[in-house]
Amino acid sequence: MIVDLFAGPGGWSRALGVLGVRDVGLEWDEWACKTRVAASQLTVRTDVAMYPTWPFIGRTRGLIASPPCQAWSMAGKRLGLVDQPLVHEAVENLAAGRDIRERLLAACRDERSLLAAEPMRYLHALNAVGEPEWVAMEEVPDVLPLWKQYAAVLRSWGFSTWCGILNAADYGVPQTRRRAILLASRVRTAQPPTPTHAQVGEPDSLFGPGRTRWVSMAEALGWGATDRPVPTVCAGGGPGGGPEPFPSGSRKTLSDARERGTWTPRPDGIVLQSRREGAGWAARHGARENRAASAPAPTFTAEAHRWSWSLRSNNQANATIRSIEEPAGTLFFGHRANECTWIAEPPAAQQEDAASAPVPEPIRITAREAGTLQTFPANYPWAGNKGQQFSQIGNAVPPLLAAHLLAPHLNIALNPDDFTLAA
After folding, report:
1. How many whole angstroms separate alpha carbon 2 and alpha carbon 22?
2. Homologous superfamily of domain range 2-201+396-418
3. Could you name the active-site residues (predicted)?
4. How far apart are CA 84 and CA 90, in angstroms?
């Protein structure tokens, strides 16, 4: 079997499924487990730190681990960095078969920090019978020193190892998500997968095929997949006044816009349209429950202004803002679940004309859109409320990146076209 520790909502499992293989995932979070079950993934709901290792001994080909990143992530308090010496101590002792976790846990500033040492408990037990054949682990970049410690232990056990930082965008993920990766194998030379994409596209050469340009958010979401997929907002004013489709203070999503007929995909991009038509407009089109998602958009009669759309990662002053012509920045959610928003601004050439037009309100990203930017299929069965769904998405391994990491271990050729992003 392939054992997936801290399996989450199924990033690694989704990758394995596309490659024609299954794993068994250990996961504690209730809603991540429900998502996995809905996605037909084998799951044991358990605390990885408490689960025994004996059920896997003599039966394990591969071990996957993505310990919770909240203690280390830039999105949190990063107390894992304070606890890092304790985690290193735990790994050193677990590698020698000494379990001092209880004492170290009492000294940790964040109890989640020590979870990064848990894979070594499983590896030590499995190594006694010459298992596993291979290992793949993933975490935020600050965990790289810990992965180097793991690599040194695994090399002493006869593994070939590689660890370093990879950018998910270099493998076709529409997100510049940088992660610390550890790869190890008893039967092949461990090395990172060859990047398939680059920030600037490269032509083919005598040395092999060139790399494709990074995948943009617009391409991934199917919002006008052209050479320059420019999303626009058309906003016009009419003498009759009346309500705007997204009034100030509203918390609408692009899905709401589709249902209300105010958002229409066009061959050259996405068009979010707003207008002023008079008080009767709200009665005719304002109630989303009375308007089918497939219904045509209303007619727009006013002079239009074009707006460029970007994704803002949170509401902090240093938030990453990326045009939809680019990959997203790293998606992280948690308490900022509702603050990852699409924002609009007029292109520089049209700022003067657009100054008098109403600026569209920020539009909250949907779980479906965020999941797609993580390379999950658009119909992936996320369980729980919006906050729980966003938390799962932000913590997940992008399946497309995971597939690039796993395919060589499985001796399976990866076809990236199997990961259809837009639906």
Report:
1. 7
2. Vaccinia Virus protein VP39 (3.40.50.150)
3. 69
4. 10
